[in-house]
Amino acid sequence: MVIDMASRIAFWLGLLALLSGEAQAGLDYTLRLHGDGTELAVHLCAPDGLAAGELRSGDRDSTRWLLAIDGDGSSRPRRSGERIVHSGLSAGQCLRYRVDLRSAGRGDRYGLGWRDDAYAMLRLSDWFWRPQRIPAGTQASVAFPDGWSASLPWTPSDASGRRYRIPDTPRSWEGFSAFGRFEERRLDYPGGRLRVTLLPTTRPIPTPALLRWLDLNTRAVLTSSGRLPLADAQVLVVPLPGVRSPTPWGQVARGGGSALRLFTGLDASEAERNEDWTLSHELSHLFHPYLGDGGRWLSEGLASYYQNVLRARAGILTPERAWSKLDAGFGRGHDERSTRGQRLSEVSAGYRGTMRVYWSGAAYWLEADAALRERHGQSLDAVLERFAERHLPAYQTWSPERFTAELDRLAGTRLFVPMYQRYAADTRFPDLDDTYRRLGIGTGIQRLRSDPNAPAAAIRDAIMARSPDSVRAADAAVAR
């Protein structure tokens, strides 16, 4: 009877808090491995109680990995369709469930999610069941046997690396996770750190070469402002035996925090991997918030622009090669025929016309960077740094309109918004003739040529050059 009364009190207090708009107390998740790594047990505890409601994972198919559900007191948790419903938890009570890691990992469509006695690589939505809103102060602890580790997108809250803060990112945002016999390495740089996991495979991994590759491209990012734009990011590297492509695929996820997942071919040489653009492209996505499908051309365009500019500043490419690579990309965007006559914003939201989307976006950022430098005595690097200081990490979607308006506010200009409106409405690839003319970039026979007497020739050279501050920051990072 006492427990039942406590449950009722917790329910009504939780309901009153929701109705009054007060923040709910934080929850505590504890993760444990069972069955030699084949099962994950999750304990969800409510130090101050949890009102009756439901938990969802973000993926309606994830219920197939659930093995068992139980809870304290009168919580009565049960599976109902794609949900776990419960009758509420009193203060200090817990809800528990177990997930079949082996089956979930083997469900990976590329066959890379499970390796016996080595690791399980899963989407966060495969096992993380949560309320609609994650209360402030929610944390997770990893209680694994010796020799087992986790790679998670959440930011560690202490030096042990086994306790994390869980932010309230939208449930629809996907995240990456891995559990297994590996080591998570922390690479510290000015402004932040990368938590790097190299998943084990059937062949020896060239760990020093892979870490040099990560460091080389991270130092390229430092040439923007001298600092990483985020204080913390997860990096999950999936080595591919028998694959010659240096980095056939990379992606960014923001569910639970900022994360990169990179697939790298083990049969590529170190020189080929270092020359590849994929890692610098994915790292460049850390400069902006999630902009939704309609803003995909802005986000992919920024990464396509910076993947060349930052590598030139880091010495991976010569400035001439970087300009040539940008020009070649613009050529591919111009030649994209499948979406001609359609607005760029519509093409972007529909996930069509990849070359037009990526390279129209890169053209936008080149034009903006050149205009900022020539007319306003600023740079894109400086404006994005101000944005990062005030708004990153961002745990909600920013509309393209809001993002460009904030860049204008921070720069004290009216540049980004009018350009955004023009580009988004355009049904053709943007005309860069005037930008090329002012920068002194012209196409000659079989190669790009530069005019030293162009009105903005100095700006052309400055775009590919490192600032003294960023040089010092990158060199300091290397010295460590």
> How many structural domains?
2
* Helix content, binned percent: 25-40%
Name the CATH architecture of the largest domain.
Orthogonal Bundle
Q: Count of helical segments? A: 15
Number of strands: 21
Overall shape: it is: globular
Which whole number gives the mean pLDDT?
A: 91
The radius of gyration is: 24 Å
Alpha carbon gap, first and last residue: 62 Å
pLDDT under 50 segments (min length 5)?
A: 1-23
What do we call the CATH topology of the largest domain? Neutral Protease, domain 2
Structural class: alpha+beta
Determine the strand fraction and express it as a percent band: 15-25%
Largest sheet: 7 strands, mixed
Q: Give the C-level CATH assignment of the largest domain.
A: Mainly Alpha
In which order are the strands of the major sheet placed? 4-7-2-1-10-13-12
Overall description:
The chain has 480 residues and is of the alpha+beta class. The protein has two domains: 2-175, Immunoglobulin-like (Sandwich); 277-479, Neutral Protease, domain 2, CATH 1.10.390. The chain is 38% helix and 22% strand. It is built from 15 helices and 21 strands. The chain has helices at residues 2-20, 101-106, 207-225, 270-275, 278-284, 296-313, 319-335, 344-349, 354-376, 380-391, 400-411, 416-425, 433-439, 457-463, 468-479, and strands at residues 28-34, 39-46, 53-55, 66-71, 78-80, 83-86, 93-100, 114-115, 119-123, 139-143, 149-151, 155-156, 163-165, 176-180, 184-189, 192-198, 232-240, 249-253, 259-265, 441-443, 448-450. The strands form five sheets. Strands 4-7-2-1-10-13-12 form a seven-stranded mixed β-sheet. A five-stranded mixed β-sheet has the order 15-16-17-19-18, covered by helices on one side. The longest helix has 23 residues, at 354-376. The N and C termini lie far apart (62 Å). Mean pLDDT is 91; it is low at 1-23.
